[in-house]
Specification:
The structure is a homotetramer. Chain A is of the alpha/beta class and about 350 residues long. Chain A folds into two domains: about 140 residues, Rossmann fold (3-Layer(aba) Sandwich); about 180 residues, Dihydrodipicolinate Reductase, domain 2 (2-Layer Sandwich). Chain A has nine helices and 15 strands. In chain A, helix 1 crosses helix 8, helix 5 runs antiparallel to helix 9 and helix 7 packs across helix 9. Chains A and C meet through loops of A and loops of C.
Chain lengths: ~350, ~350, ~350, ~350
């Protein structure tokens, strides 16, 4: 029986508690939150689970095998580091930390101690994203051309992080999972419309070695909710609409063929292909259940998580690079230069 | 009776012919196209209209009062200039020319001769865009926050211009019409997925003096057609969906209010407003009919067109700046520096 | 402190328990279900609430003031009657009973004892339906022309009742609430596609004294979920789409005007009006919370519930009439003839 | 070279003219319309085509091989009969005539003379309906369960026929084409909301020998346009949305399976299947072009049209039965009893 403790019972904590509670051969032993009023939820719904207001009690408890961290982002690093140093496996809500330097320190600590460091990139465990990865891996879309995503809605303004760290993080983690290559550079813009609040609108372009490109727009100030990702390829194209209740992934047999029978550009002929449309059945299992189970399984078997510390670091690196670019209104930033120092990554730390 | 000649009878020419043909007290006298096979359309449908294969015949005809230019973009400048020099009023399909320098030359010539130089930014004459301008002018949306537009579909790849000059031009002309201020700078990326074909995907961000920002994505390689523009403001927000058959403009009483009862950022409280939604009735008149009528009216009354040479120049300036930025993968380009020399604007000229 | 007991903890029971639990100055004292395994849910989530397997224990408990009945439909009547005879106020899940005769008996018993008999027509308490009633009452749509509703999806096949009693009941209860007049007659068809299962598809037409007509289609075997109701009137028309997450009610300034300047039908001229579209903001309160509160309020104040026994009887009368018509493949049945005897209403009683 | 004349150049006539004009080895020789102002359209667009105001001139012209009739419905029969008697092949706009008796007379005359009698059920020639027929024929949907169609919008009120003859005729012709069996009986209701205008709303249920059922709602007074047909089967289900611009036909691997391991109804277990969704590519050819070509081909080869007189008669029989049922507010009418006499079919004849 593996014993797990959860630190943080805010917006997302209850979902983590519910899913770890039901993992077989796992005991969710204790939940911590600095706000004692949040712990009533645990008392009422999970009377067998202990509660504390200081997360360090969990980290210091020798009976605990693994710690789940669901606090505000600024606290991820210090809690995760202490938990690793105390010999615990660690599951951290996305994003893993606030900078590449922090991520590197966590990766190093986990490796040195042989512990699992897990980033909860939860979208990676949805049936939709898993199917998309499968389609790309099988070559169904051909050469990938682009990933173009809009993730916009009204609110919820975060207090500690801007819209890139809140919303774009999902697209970046999906990209890191589905694409065999990683980006070389980034261009981003970031905009604040409500004085005193976090920047609420951003556009990010990621450049790769090939002509593949990723473009992401995020916005907390949209009158309508949109969660639509287009993935273009040379053979087929995918529309992933996460709001659609029944068919989130549709595959289009569409594309362009180019003929150049002559010698010059003038002779180029383009023809358009449009065939069937297909909506594959997706696994219905809750993503967070699968994510929790994967973390537990990696602890037991020693397997490397698909969303390990390196994956968490890569996503943070893209965001850190995007923040640098945004401060220069879109200037291209080479990602291999990101992470050598402590960046100003836009995370607001409490006093 | 005003006599009009049309040069160019390709994709868009028939629409121009149809609409100029029906203007009251206007005689559509002659149509030119280098491809004689295109002129059969004129013979069959407008037997009273003469046809020629050389547009210079129209420009050289003293009986013609006004010339409508609907050729490939690269020919706009020289034909428009010659027509102005021959004393004709000129109506040019968007974009006005391939560079700011060209636009300046046309504006100068028209002004010196007291002739109307008209850019056919046709979306400006739609009921939807006119209503949006009215809502902004009346203060219905409050302070404008952003314009965010997606204009994507499969094809039609243009041979002579890339996707910015083909699709983004619409958004830029709408912006120039509806916004009281003009942008200061631009960041853009441009991507080519089909070797030998024109670049097919772009993202453009326009920076303004205020926190208002415009973001535009265009793509010829999307499996689905999207024409959706969001316009955010402090009081209300607009969704303009040009594909929606019945209600293209919807106005949302949505927004965010910020309270800061205390002294620090920690005390900020955000509340969300969501009230009624409203879809105003739009004028149904065909945009091109209104555009043609406006051109004719300006000739008759001496009024300045709402889409005059300066408006055409401004749109070209944004695109020329976007091209410069795109060649540097998104670097911010100050728009007041654009236009001092002949840029490489991505327009392909035939051999 | 009013003491309430709930009989039945199946599909809908947990929602009733949650909402009665939170009513102010109400004690949800006890829940009954014949299936003891269902009671674990109560233990886990509401440890202060007692549980029993025999609903008669609740009815026989003198400390209980009101009984909520959420059992299979066939048991509604006998439980509700016994509860009334034991002096309890009664809240019955829709439909109130299986026949008009049963409804009359319950109404009579409640009236004789001065008790509240409440039918939980829960849609009546939604923000959408309340707004629609307000619009009709205010004359916003003019003379009502029709109510046309499609309520279809895949499953959930009920074991004890057919699709009319499961899905059409919602439309009939909405109609009874929003329309000032009640129907005179009904024509219905009912179809069974899965041998051994309940009939899964039906169409119902209700005739009124005026030219107003209601038409309802319901289906458990549709590949897509649709919950769309059109309400036409002489001045405006309403589309109520209960699946739409954000704007469930849209009001269209659309209609037809008729001119007859001459004397005969030949001279009739029809013109079409199409103006603005408007989506009023709707109350967000959960319908079942409002319904539970209304029941409690009626007990305290002696007010007549808007969904009282008569309303419950009217809905059952329409369904009983529809069943008679359906057995004759659509023959018109006068509703004032329904209810004089025990009908074969298609409710399956357990052995 | 086959010579064709068209009688009637109203709403639909121009489409017929355009499509017959382009058929190879066919000469569209002459168009007739009693309203001479309609003939200007022909002069302007088809200067080689002669025009007359009296359709009898076409019927009496020995050089004409085939006559296309696109007049108001009430005139179909007499014109078609005269054209057949004059030895012409006849193409009649839907519906073929106003009663079964009329249809029988036309069928008899055509058979006696060996002429083609063609009913223009144009939807039968769309890529969508052809694909649906193919799917049913191949057994892709399994046993057909139902056809459920909504065909509603605002206007266009017809002057001579009610909404059944204007809109439901499309569904009835599609049913006659795609289903291997023909209906036994009909129940219908018909409603008039605008005094002096034709009845504008109807619901029709068609009963078959099997449990298959067809249900159709039509309405000229809907605020929104809907053209959605659901076709349920034991294996798969089809959604045919004729408004959808890109994917009109979607096939759902959805259904219900029933297990009855025990002996009684109590033991029935229902399970739900939901697999992939698939949108087959549809032929893009214009339906009316295909229809015109099919008529011409049948004249040349002697083949029986798929929409011959019998098909036209069957659709009229369903509508005539529906009218009888509607006058009795939905009473079931056996279709084999329809057509023995001249019915009151709701067609308004001019004075």
């Amino acid at each position: 029986m593996l014993k797990v403790g959860v630190i943080g019972c805010g917006y997302w904590g209850p979902n983590l508690i519910r899913n770890f509670y039901k993992q077989p051969d796992v005991e969710l032993a204790v939940v911590a939150d600095v706000d004692a009023s949040r712990l009533g939820f645990v008392h009422d719904n999970y009377p067998t689970v202990a509660t504390v207001t200081d997360g360090m009690e969990i980290i210091g408890d020798p009976a605990i095998d693994a710690v789940v961290i669901a606090t505000p982002v600024a606290a991820h690093f210090s809690l995760a580091l202490k938990a690793l140093q105390a010999g615990k496996h660690v599951f951290v809500e996305k994003p893993l930390a606030t900078s590449v330097v922090e991520c590197d320190r966590l990766i190093e600590e986990a490796a040195a101690r042989g512990l699992v460091l897990y980033t909860d990139h939860v979208f990676v465990h949805t049936g939709a994203v898993r199917k998309i990865k499968q389609l790309i891996d099988e070559g169904a879309i051909g050469d990938p051309y682009y990933y173009d995503s809009a993730r916009i809605n009204l609110g919820l303004f975060q207090r500690d992080v801007n819209v890139i760290w809140d919303l774009a993080v999902h697209d970046l983690s999906i990209l890191d999972y589905i694409m065999p290559q990683r980006p070389k550079a980034v261009s981003a813009t970031l905009h604040q419309h409500v004085p005193g609040a976090q920047p609420n609108m951003a556009a990010i372009t990621l450049f790769y070695e090939t002509s593949f490109v990723a473009h992401i727009t995020v916005n907390w100030m949209s009158p309508v909710k949109v969660r639509r990702t287009l993935i273009g390829g040379s053979r087929q194209m995918i529309v992933y609409d996460d709001i659609e209740p029944s068919q989130k992934v549709m595959v289009y047999e569409k594309g362009v063929d180019l003929f150049n029978p002559g010698s010059g550009d003038e002779d180029i002929r383009i023809s358009y292909r449009a065939g069937d449309v297909w909506g594959p059945k997706l696994e219905g299992r809750e993503a967070l259940d699968r994510s929790a189970a994967h973390f537990i399984d990696c602890i037991r078997t020693g397997a490397q998580p698909i969303t390990d510390g390196h994956s968490g670091r890569e996503v943070v690196r893209m965001m850190e690079g995007a923040m640098v670019s945004a401060r220069m209104d879109g200037q291209r930033i080479e990602l291999d230069r990101v992470g050598s120092g402590v960046g100003r990554t836009g995370i607001r730390r409490s006093a």
